[in-house]
Design goal:
Helix content is 64%, strand content 9%. It has five helices and four strands. 12% of the residues are buried.
Length: 173
């Protein structure tokens, strides 16, 4: 084996060792998280991958598969509360975490679980949480409207140019 290939193999092994050390550190940190409940559907690929990621991170969880007896009713109560019937839905420390509402990617969801399920995390009072959520919704609406306005600018210019051309044609006719 050439020196270059040997060096590449050694570097790869070292990186894998460092990755495994980091994974074990994470597992130790995650061993003391509060209870995590995961509502899943057995045919959901996202659920399967999320479960694998939770296992990889050493996050203990209770998997409540929708086909299990009594789980459908429990899930329906959660849906009536959140308005979201999405899998997987996570419940930890009295907080529902729902994909595409609370997190966009699995790693982001894992980080939210680690934060909210951490033993030192205290839920803020409902009124403060509501105010902050309203502020965030307002910021999201503002950003969306700004993006729409930006997207419509070329169309507005196009219409204005056509109106100008029509006015000039009428003037010359």
């Amino acid at each position: 084996m050439t020196t270059e290939k040997t060096l590449k193999v050694e570097i790869k092994e070292e990186l894998e060792n460092q990755k495994e050390i980091k994974r074990e550190e994470n597992r130790k940190l995650n061993a003391n998280l509060r209870e995590v409940i995961l509502y899943t559907k057995e045919t959901c690929p996202y659920c399967i991958n999320f479960i694998k990621l939770l296992d990889d991170e050493g996050i203990k969880f209770i998997n409540k598969e929708i086909k299990q007896e009594g789980i459908r009713e429990e899930f329906n109560k959660m849906v009536s509360l959140t308005g979201q019937g999405v899998f997987p839905t996570i419940l930890t420390n009295d907080n529902y975490l729902i994909p595409n509402r609370d997190f966009r990617s699995m790693p982001e969801g894992i980080e939210m679980i680690k934060s909210i399920a951490h033993p030192s995390y205290e839920n803020p009072p409902s009124n403060l949480k509501t105010i902050e959520m309203l502020k965030q919704m307002n910021a999201n609406f503002r950003s969306s409207f700004e993006n729409i306005q930006k997207d419509l600018s070329p169309l507005k210019k196009f219409i204005a140019d056509i109106q100008k051309e029509i006015a000039e044609e009428e003037k010359n006719a």
